Amino acid sequence: MAQSVDTLHNQNVGDIAAHLPGASGVFREFGIDYCCQGHVTLIDAAARRNLDLGVIDTTLGALDPAATPSAPRETTALIDHIQTRYHAVHRRQIPDLIDLSHRVETAHVNHPQVPAGLAETLTRFMGEMEVHMKKEELILFPAMRQKAMDRLGNPLRELRHDHNDHAFFLDQIARLTEDLCAPTDACASWQALYSEAGRSKADLMEHIHLENNVLFPRYEMAMQD
Ligand SMILES: [Fe+2]
Ligand SMILES: [Fe+2]
User: Range of 54's domain?
Assistant: First the structure.
């Protein structure tokens, strides 16, 4: 993407994240939702969050467009990457977060900022994620690998809808945890909980982005031809 930052203003944030290595990290840093709201232009995304577009320009402008992307471009390799880097990691990380959350909620039950209900929210989230990932692994990805376009339309719509539900869980977690800001007197476990939850949130956003803005459109566009 060899172009000036000015020309990025009217591009969708999902497309920018898909083509400019490192842009997704910049968007996360500024709180811009590039995964479920990837269709929003950069100028509108900045306005929604009352962000200084000039500062975002400077940060995006410092990225190297020729840097190696973090995910493979080739479709089959991308599907493999999504399964090994994201599905498998969510299945390890989220149950650990649930355990840690139970411990923090129990140990600090009387603290005014305790994230009461976080373990329960994460448990419901993991249940939905497991069903969602199974649908991708058993239905969507095999059909994609076989290029069985007639079996993709409904699953793609349904799975995009699931992604919006995942974003709803992220909002709930942000509300329960004051946006993952631990209080100044938080113990090491509480701090670890929020920092690990932040890592999981970044993984989830990148995972959804790769599906919504990179993988799914390849098939959706082919179906329109
Ligand atoms: Fe997935
Ligand atoms: Fe997904």
Answer: 5-61
